[in-house]
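Need residues for this backbone.
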Protein backbone atom coordinates (compact mmCIF):
# COMPACT_ATOMS: atom_id res chain seq x y z
CA UNK A 1 0.00 0.00 0.00
CA UNK A 2 1.38 3.43 -0.97
CA UNK A 3 0.66 6.92 0.35
CA UNK A 4 -1.48 7.55 -2.73
CA UNK A 5 -3.86 4.82 -1.55
CA UNK A 6 -4.19 6.26 1.95
CA UNK A 7 -5.40 9.28 3.82
CA UNK A 8 -2.11 10.39 5.38
CA UNK A 9 -2.00 12.91 8.22
CA UNK A 10 1.37 14.13 9.44
CA UNK A 11 1.98 16.49 12.37
CA UNK A 12 -1.46 18.10 12.03
CA UNK A 13 -1.97 21.13 14.26
CA UNK A 14 -5.30 22.97 14.23
CA UNK A 15 -6.70 26.00 16.04
CA UNK A 16 -9.96 27.97 15.91
CA UNK A 17 -9.88 30.89 13.48
CA UNK A 18 -10.96 33.15 16.33
CA UNK A 19 -8.02 32.07 18.52
CA UNK A 20 -5.19 30.80 16.29
CA UNK A 21 -2.77 30.81 19.22
CA UNK A 22 -4.90 28.18 21.01
CA UNK A 23 -4.18 24.89 19.24
CA UNK A 24 -6.79 22.19 19.77
CA UNK A 25 -4.90 19.55 17.76
CA UNK A 26 -1.23 19.45 18.64
CA UNK A 27 0.40 17.09 16.19
CA UNK A 28 -1.79 14.29 14.81
CA UNK A 29 -0.17 11.45 12.85
CA UNK A 30 -2.57 9.00 11.22
CA UNK A 31 -2.94 6.78 8.16
CA UNK A 32 -6.21 5.26 6.95
CA UNK A 33 -6.11 2.91 3.98
CA UNK A 34 -8.84 1.52 1.70
CA UNK A 35 -10.98 -1.13 3.35
CA UNK A 36 -9.86 -0.08 6.83
CA UNK A 37 -12.06 1.11 9.69
CA UNK A 38 -10.23 3.30 12.21
CA UNK A 39 -12.05 4.39 15.37
CA UNK A 40 -11.06 7.63 17.09
CA UNK A 41 -12.14 7.65 20.74
CA UNK A 42 -11.50 10.25 23.40
CA UNK A 43 -12.93 12.25 26.29
CA UNK A 44 -15.18 15.22 25.63
CA UNK A 45 -13.14 18.21 24.48
CA UNK A 46 -10.22 16.10 23.25
CA UNK A 47 -10.41 17.42 19.65
CA UNK A 48 -12.33 14.65 17.88
CA UNK A 49 -14.76 16.91 16.02
CA UNK A 50 -11.99 19.43 15.34
CA UNK A 51 -10.14 16.65 13.51
CA UNK A 52 -13.20 15.83 11.40
CA UNK A 53 -13.79 19.48 10.52
CA UNK A 54 -10.12 20.11 9.71
CA UNK A 55 -10.06 17.16 7.32
CA UNK A 56 -13.00 18.61 5.37
CA UNK A 57 -11.87 22.25 5.48
CA UNK A 58 -14.33 23.84 7.91
CA UNK A 59 -13.83 27.63 7.73
CA UNK A 60 -14.01 27.95 11.52
CA UNK A 61 -10.62 26.27 11.91
CA UNK A 62 -7.11 27.06 10.70
CA UNK A 63 -4.35 24.49 10.14
CA UNK A 64 -1.28 25.88 11.89
CA UNK A 65 1.06 23.02 11.00
CA UNK A 66 1.41 19.63 9.37
CA UNK A 67 -0.04 18.18 6.20
CA UNK A 68 -2.87 16.01 4.89
CA UNK A 69 -2.62 14.04 1.65
CA UNK A 70 -5.24 11.89 -0.07
CA UNK A 71 -4.84 10.18 -3.43
CA UNK A 72 -1.44 11.85 -3.65
CA UNK A 73 -2.91 15.37 -3.47
CA UNK A 74 -2.36 18.07 -0.87
CA UNK A 75 -5.79 18.19 0.77
CA UNK A 76 -5.05 21.49 2.53
CA UNK A 77 -4.88 23.23 -0.85
CA UNK A 78 -8.39 22.09 -1.76
CA UNK A 79 -11.70 23.77 -0.88
CA UNK A 80 -14.30 21.65 0.98
CA UNK A 81 -16.27 20.96 -2.20
CA UNK A 82 -13.13 19.77 -4.00
CA UNK A 83 -12.31 17.45 -1.12
CA UNK A 84 -15.77 15.96 -1.55
CA UNK A 85 -15.31 15.67 -5.31
CA UNK A 86 -12.07 13.81 -4.60
CA UNK A 87 -14.00 11.16 -2.69
CA UNK A 88 -14.03 12.40 0.92
CA UNK A 89 -17.26 12.51 2.91
CA UNK A 90 -18.20 13.88 6.33
CA UNK A 91 -21.27 12.70 8.25
CA UNK A 92 -22.09 15.44 10.76
CA UNK A 93 -22.72 14.95 14.44
CA UNK A 94 -25.42 17.65 14.27
CA UNK A 95 -26.82 17.83 10.69
CA UNK A 96 -28.40 21.12 9.64
CA UNK A 97 -32.03 21.46 8.53
CA UNK A 98 -32.71 23.07 5.14
CA UNK A 99 -36.42 23.99 4.94
CA UNK A 100 -37.86 24.02 1.43
CA UNK A 101 -35.22 21.73 -0.11
CA UNK A 102 -36.25 18.12 -0.64
CA UNK A 103 -33.92 15.27 0.20
CA UNK A 104 -34.07 14.04 -3.41
CA UNK A 105 -33.11 17.44 -4.90
CA UNK A 106 -30.37 17.92 -2.35
CA UNK A 107 -28.73 14.55 -3.03
CA UNK A 108 -29.09 14.81 -6.81
CA UNK A 109 -27.35 18.21 -6.78
CA UNK A 110 -24.52 16.81 -4.66
CA UNK A 111 -24.18 13.75 -6.89
CA UNK A 112 -24.05 15.86 -10.06
CA UNK A 113 -21.46 18.15 -8.52
CA UNK A 114 -19.26 15.18 -7.65
CA UNK A 115 -19.58 13.79 -11.17
CA UNK A 116 -18.07 17.02 -12.48
CA UNK A 117 -14.77 16.02 -10.93
CA UNK A 118 -12.34 17.72 -8.60
CA UNK A 119 -10.87 19.88 -11.37
CA UNK A 120 -14.28 20.74 -12.85
CA UNK A 121 -13.59 19.77 -16.46
CA UNK A 122 -15.38 21.85 -19.07
CA UNK A 123 -16.56 18.68 -20.81
CA UNK A 124 -18.92 17.89 -17.93
CA UNK A 125 -22.08 19.83 -17.20
CA UNK A 126 -23.67 18.33 -14.06
CA UNK A 127 -27.06 19.80 -14.95
CA UNK A 128 -27.09 18.09 -18.36
CA UNK A 129 -27.49 14.30 -18.49
CA UNK A 130 -26.03 14.34 -22.02
CA UNK A 131 -22.81 15.96 -20.79
CA UNK A 132 -21.96 13.93 -17.74
CA UNK A 133 -24.83 14.64 -15.37
CA UNK A 134 -27.00 11.85 -14.01
CA UNK A 135 -30.35 11.45 -15.72
CA UNK A 136 -33.54 11.56 -13.66
CA UNK A 137 -34.26 7.94 -14.56
CA UNK A 138 -30.82 6.73 -13.49
CA UNK A 139 -31.02 8.83 -10.34
CA UNK A 140 -34.38 7.35 -9.33
CA UNK A 141 -33.14 3.81 -9.97
CA UNK A 142 -30.02 4.41 -7.93
CA UNK A 143 -31.99 6.05 -5.13
CA UNK A 144 -34.41 3.11 -4.91
CA UNK A 145 -31.47 0.69 -4.69
CA UNK A 146 -29.83 2.64 -1.85
CA UNK A 147 -33.11 3.09 0.02
CA UNK A 148 -33.64 -0.66 -0.16
CA UNK A 149 -30.08 -1.26 1.02
CA UNK A 150 -30.66 0.98 4.04
CA UNK A 151 -34.22 -0.29 4.57
CA UNK A 152 -35.71 3.17 4.23
CA UNK A 153 -39.16 4.12 2.90
CA UNK A 154 -39.22 5.87 -0.49
CA UNK A 155 -41.37 8.70 0.91
CA UNK A 156 -38.36 9.77 2.99
CA UNK A 157 -36.77 11.55 0.01
CA UNK A 158 -39.81 13.79 -0.53
CA UNK A 159 -39.33 15.49 2.84
CA UNK A 160 -37.30 18.64 3.40
CA UNK A 161 -33.71 18.09 4.51
CA UNK A 162 -33.70 17.38 8.27
CA UNK A 163 -36.77 19.55 8.87
CA UNK A 164 -38.74 17.94 11.69
CA UNK A 165 -36.47 14.89 11.62
CA UNK A 166 -35.83 12.86 14.76
CA UNK A 167 -32.25 12.17 15.82
CA UNK A 168 -32.37 8.76 14.19
CA UNK A 169 -33.77 10.13 10.92
CA UNK A 170 -31.05 12.77 10.69
CA UNK A 171 -28.34 10.16 11.02
CA UNK A 172 -30.03 7.84 8.52
CA UNK A 173 -30.12 10.70 6.01
CA UNK A 174 -26.36 11.08 6.48
CA UNK A 175 -26.03 7.38 5.64
CA UNK A 176 -28.25 7.79 2.57
CA UNK A 177 -26.05 10.62 1.32
CA UNK A 178 -23.01 8.46 1.86
CA UNK A 179 -24.60 5.56 -0.01
CA UNK A 180 -25.52 7.75 -2.99
CA UNK A 181 -22.20 9.60 -3.23
CA UNK A 182 -20.12 6.43 -2.73
CA UNK A 183 -17.06 8.10 -1.18
CA UNK A 184 -13.71 6.38 -0.80
CA UNK A 185 -12.92 8.04 2.53
CA UNK A 186 -15.78 8.47 5.01
CA UNK A 187 -15.38 10.50 8.20
CA UNK A 188 -18.24 9.75 10.58
CA UNK A 189 -18.35 12.33 13.37
CA UNK A 190 -20.11 10.80 16.39
CA UNK A 191 -22.79 9.20 14.24
CA UNK A 192 -24.10 7.53 17.41
CA UNK A 193 -24.64 10.84 19.26
CA UNK A 194 -28.23 11.31 20.44
CA UNK A 195 -29.44 7.85 19.41
CA UNK A 196 -31.12 5.23 21.52
CA UNK A 197 -30.03 1.63 21.13
CA UNK A 198 -32.54 0.72 18.39
CA UNK A 199 -31.74 3.76 16.24
CA UNK A 200 -28.02 3.13 16.79
CA UNK A 201 -28.35 -0.43 15.54
CA UNK A 202 -30.21 0.69 12.41
CA UNK A 203 -27.60 3.34 11.57
CA UNK A 204 -24.74 0.92 12.23
CA UNK A 205 -26.32 -1.64 9.92
CA UNK A 206 -26.42 1.06 7.24
CA UNK A 207 -22.70 1.74 7.66
CA UNK A 208 -21.86 -1.96 7.60
CA UNK A 209 -23.86 -2.41 4.40
CA UNK A 210 -21.59 0.12 2.68
CA UNK A 211 -18.23 -1.22 3.85
CA UNK A 212 -16.12 -2.47 0.95
CA UNK A 213 -12.44 -2.95 0.02
CA UNK A 214 -12.17 0.54 -1.53
CA UNK A 215 -13.75 2.47 1.35
CA UNK A 216 -11.68 3.80 4.23
CA UNK A 217 -13.60 4.86 7.35
CA UNK A 218 -12.58 7.19 10.16
CA UNK A 219 -15.16 6.55 12.86
CA UNK A 220 -15.19 9.19 15.59
CA UNK A 221 -17.04 8.27 18.76
CA UNK A 222 -17.09 8.83 22.50
CA UNK A 223 -19.01 5.63 23.22
CA UNK A 224 -17.64 2.11 22.94
CA UNK A 225 -21.18 0.84 22.28
CA UNK A 226 -21.01 1.81 18.58
CA UNK A 227 -18.04 -0.52 18.17
CA UNK A 228 -20.27 -3.43 19.21
CA UNK A 229 -21.94 -3.00 15.81
CA UNK A 230 -19.20 -1.60 13.58
CA UNK A 231 -16.00 -3.58 14.08
CA UNK A 232 -12.87 -1.38 13.83
CA UNK A 233 -9.52 -2.61 12.54
CA UNK A 234 -7.67 -0.02 14.61
CA UNK A 235 -8.66 2.04 17.67
CA UNK A 236 -6.94 5.33 18.54
CA UNK A 237 -7.33 7.32 21.76
CA UNK A 238 -7.26 11.08 21.20
CA UNK A 239 -6.64 13.22 24.28
CA UNK A 240 -5.56 16.81 24.76
CA UNK A 241 -5.01 17.28 21.06
CA UNK A 242 -2.90 14.24 20.23
CA UNK A 243 -3.18 10.47 19.79
CA UNK A 244 -1.89 8.92 23.00
CA UNK A 245 -2.67 5.25 22.40
CA UNK A 246 -3.32 2.97 19.41
CA UNK A 247 -4.47 -0.63 19.48
CA UNK A 248 -7.07 -3.10 18.32
CA UNK A 249 -10.64 -3.66 19.41
CA UNK A 250 -9.36 -4.77 22.80
CA UNK A 251 -8.38 -1.16 23.47
CA UNK A 252 -12.01 -0.06 23.13
CA UNK A 253 -13.07 -2.82 25.51
CA UNK A 254 -10.45 -1.68 28.01
CA UNK A 255 -11.82 1.87 27.78
CA UNK A 256 -15.31 0.59 28.49
CA UNK A 257 -14.05 -1.23 31.57
CA UNK A 258 -11.57 1.33 32.95
CA UNK A 259 -12.52 4.69 31.41
CA UNK A 260 -9.94 7.07 29.94
CA UNK A 261 -8.15 7.87 33.22
CA UNK A 262 -5.59 5.02 33.29
CA UNK A 263 -4.60 5.47 29.64
CA UNK A 264 -4.20 9.22 30.05
CA UNK A 265 -1.98 8.72 33.08
CA UNK A 266 0.09 6.13 31.20
CA UNK A 267 0.66 8.81 28.55
CA UNK A 268 1.85 11.23 31.22
CA UNK A 269 -1.18 13.48 30.99
CA UNK A 270 -2.81 15.16 33.94
CA UNK A 271 -6.53 14.43 34.09
CA UNK A 272 -7.47 17.06 36.70
CA UNK A 273 -10.82 15.29 37.07
CA UNK A 274 -12.01 12.12 38.77
CA UNK A 275 -12.03 8.77 37.00
CA UNK A 276 -15.82 8.90 37.16
CA UNK A 277 -15.75 11.97 34.92
CA UNK A 278 -13.55 10.08 32.45
CA UNK A 279 -15.75 6.99 32.27
CA UNK A 280 -16.99 5.75 28.91
CA UNK A 281 -20.79 5.84 29.37
CA UNK A 282 -23.20 3.55 27.60
CA UNK A 283 -24.86 6.61 26.08
CA UNK A 284 -27.93 8.72 26.64
CA UNK A 285 -31.24 7.05 27.36
CA UNK A 286 -33.68 8.49 24.86
CA UNK A 287 -37.40 8.14 24.46
CA UNK A 288 -38.63 5.44 22.07
CA UNK A 289 -39.96 8.22 19.81
CA UNK A 290 -36.37 8.73 18.64
CA UNK A 291 -36.50 5.42 16.78
CA UNK A 292 -37.31 5.81 13.09
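Answer:
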Amino acid sequence: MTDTDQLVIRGLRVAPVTAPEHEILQGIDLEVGPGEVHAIMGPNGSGKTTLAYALMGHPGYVVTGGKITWKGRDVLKLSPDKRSRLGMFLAFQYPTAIPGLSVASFIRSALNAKLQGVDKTTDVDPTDSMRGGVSMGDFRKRMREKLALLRMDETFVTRYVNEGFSGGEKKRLEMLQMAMLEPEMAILDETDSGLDIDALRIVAEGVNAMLNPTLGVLLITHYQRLLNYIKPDVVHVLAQGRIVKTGGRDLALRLEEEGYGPILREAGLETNVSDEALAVPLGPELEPAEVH
